[in-house]
Amino acid sequence: MTCHERGGYLVTITSHEEYERLRERMISEHKEDITFFVGATNERVEGTPFGYRWLEPGIKYGYYMLDLSNALFRFWLEGEPSYTGFTESGVEVSEDYVVLFYRGKDGRCYLNDVPNDILEAAPSYAGRVGYICEYE
Q1: Which of 22, 73, 114, 130 has its CA 20 to 30 A from that of 34?
Q2: Which helix H or strand E contains 23, and what residues bound it?
């Protein structure tokens, strides 16, 4: 079942406080090994500039993550966003979606761009992919 079917939408992380709440919840619910899709995309929409944007109901094309770069840029994994990556078998793929994951070695969550079908690109993620819904 998707967020939309549940009456919500994929979470948009717009502040350090929201990021911290999500990180704390991942830990308290013992979901540190889950990679969660969040509500950001780089899918090209005619008339919009290149770059990731948060998608939120009521905002036609969302708003650009760069508008929040001072608040959120430090949450991207090193070298990200890269817009392309490689499958586990070494094939280059486009990365148009964003996930949030916890990295235990430094106790932080990071944003990373990934392909739409993360399981096709990285079958080792089977059983460890989810999504975070947000509700009004």
Answers
A1: 73
A2: helix 16-28
